[in-house]
Amino acid sequence: MLDRYKREISYLRISVTDRCNLRCHYCMPEKDPALLKHSDILTFEEIQQVVSVAVPLGITKIRLTGGEPLVRKDIIKLVSMIADVEGVEDIAMTTNATMLEKFAVPLAKAGLHRINISLDTMDADNFRLITRGGDIHKVFRGIAAAKEAGLHPIKINCVVKGDDRQGAEKVREFGLREGLEVRFISEMDLQTGHFGIVEGGSGGDCRQCNRLRLTSNGKMKPCLFSDLEYDIRELGIEKAIEMALVNKPAKGTVNMMNAFHNIGG
Ligand code: SAM
Ligand code: SF4
């Protein structure tokens, strides 16, 4: 499907939860954030229904994100339900990988093709600081398990703090050693809501943007950096997709309504 700027929209990012087992300082507040009620979160059946409606309209690629997608109960079942929808060509996930060691093989078997893993540093202490308590060794074990399971390609998302080029360089070297593609993301300021560019990724170049986003409580968003959203439960799935498509802005500006953990970064 084409939007009004003639961009072919083929990619749907689905946030399956606003919850996370980490508390990265650039993404989540330290104290427990205001989380959605369980009853507001889309059921697996609703998510599958959205995919079933979106595919005939032109969506071929699905990415599951969050929050942390692996904390959503029975996530493997959701992956297989999405894989069952005829016309889905590609299923990907963005994860912090701390729980990936046990999930990598079942995810691959359920139909997940590839995975993006967030890793900002190679230093265990720094990782603990950035994530407010995370264990980097679990991430390394998760990456090894993903390779073993045949998830391919494995990409690393590395958020670079303005002055930490050295830390980023170590992540780049790790990627080269392990055959992983590393993409650098500049930290976005959630106070101002403005967006940044993903180096080596397609995000940030609005002319190339091919995506829509679905929040975990069923809002179809045409752009990460816009307040526009269309409720699939109120409008119906097809109408919400249509509204998101016709109102997709030429360029991202500001989003003061949401944080990454509830839209899905
Ligand atoms: N929990 C998963 C993870 O960390 O990969 C998936 C969700 S997370 C919100 C998706 C991506 O958003 C991560 O790669 C994370 O680094 C990025 N992100 C979160 N807050 C950000 C910010 N303020 N600026 C830039 N990237 C951010
Ligand atoms: Fe959790 Fe991912 Fe946000 Fe970190 S970036 S707090 S891992 S959702």
Protein traits:
265 residues; alpha/beta; TIM Barrel; globular; binds S-adenosylmethionine; binds iron/sulfur cluster
Average pLDDT works out at: 91
How many domains? The number is: 1
- Distinct small-molecule ligands in the complex: S-adenosylmethionine, iron/sulfur cluster
The CATH class name reads Alpha Beta
Tell me the helix content. 25-40%
With strands numbered from the N-terminus, the spatial order across the biggest sheet is: 7-6-5-4-3-2-1-8-9-10
CATH topology: TIM Barrel
Structural write-up:
The protein contains nine helices and ten strands. Strand 8 (211-214) and strand 9 form a beta hairpin. The chain is globular and about 45 Å long. It has helices spanning 44-57, 75-83, 100-110, 124-131, 136-148, 165-178, 232-235, 237-246, 260-263; strands spanning 11-15, 61-65, 90-95, 114-118, 154-160, 181-186, 198-199, 211-214, 219-221, 230-231. With 265 residues, it is an alpha/beta fold. The chain has a ten-stranded mixed β-sheet with strand order 7-6-5-4-3-2-1-8-9-10.
